[in-house]
Amino acid sequence: MENAGYTTLTRQSGLMREMQTVANNLANMSTTGFRKEGVIFSEYIAAIDDKGGSLSMATADVRQTDNRQGALTLTKATFDFAIEGGGFFLLETPAGQRLTRAGAFTPNAEGELVNPDGYRLLDSGGSPVFIPPDASSISLANDGTLSADGRPLTQIGLFQPLDPNDLVREDGVRFRADKGTRPMENAVILQGYLEDSNVNPITEISRMIEVQRAYELGQSFMDKEDERIRSVLQTLGR
After folding, report:
1. Burial 196-230 (b: 16+ CB within 10 A, else e)
2. CA–CA distance, 81 with 72 (Å, rounded to integer)
3. What's the rounded Cα separation, in Å, for the pair 111 and 36?
4. Nearest to 176 by CA among 93, 117, 98
5. Rounded alpha-carbon distances, angstroms, from residue 88 to 70, 143, 166, 185, 197
6. Using 50, 70 and 90 to split pLDDT, how confident is the model at 170?
7. 60 pLDDT tier (thresholds 50, 70, 90)
8. Residue 231 belongs to what H/E stretch?
9. Is 173 in contact with 100 (CB distance < 8 Å)?
10. What span, in angstroms and rounded, lies between the C-alpha atoms of 175 and 91?
11. Which listed residue, of 15, 32, 167, 203, carries a Cα 20 to 30 Å from 135's Cα?
């Protein structure tokens, strides 16, 4: 295969990955706390001879997370929390601490607040959030202070990665920050709300059409290039 074929093939591979990313965004348009994802295309250039020739390849290995605020939906549920502005909730998982914007929690058998996967929500000091079993009312102040029957219990922690580009998505709504986290200042948490996915379906469908057309053009080029090479080989073989 000639250089043009290799270049087009790497581009097609990147477009396929972007199509998968867009499809995943659309599949999670109703997932609480989901952050839209995209891919970043880059160019790799390598010299191939001593006469100044080069080979250019396209790659789409960098995944980019869109951290724009999603819409907030009123649920009136006691343990539904939504972050207004930046920051993440901190969860304790078997693989270590993870960040999330999904704020649907419920007390487990031990009275600790956990997410739907059973991972414990941590407070500002990194300890599990405990709800007294005899509490008749639970309230949450905007600064994250959680109270039971008017008595402060703890402050729910909001954190952000030390490096904004360090977030590694582990699943739809959980992220890993390999370089560590730090407390989020002036954060606001609302009780009785959940943050919706920040996916705009119209934008994503439009992008899907663009990627599909670009892929079809690339495939058409590869088919014509294949026909050209076959024609040359047949001519030389006569």
Report:
1. bbbbeeeebeebbeebeebbeebeebbeeeeeeee
2. 10
3. 33
4. 98
5. 13, 14, 14, 12, 14
6. confident
7. low
8. helix 201-236
9. yes
10. 10
11. 32
Residues 62, 64, 68, CA angle at the centre, nearest 5°? Answer: 175
Q: How far apart are CA 213 and CA 217, in angstroms?
A: 6
Task: Count other C-beta atoms under 10 Å from residue 9's C-beta.
Answer: 15
Residue in the structure block whose two tokens are 């080989």: 233
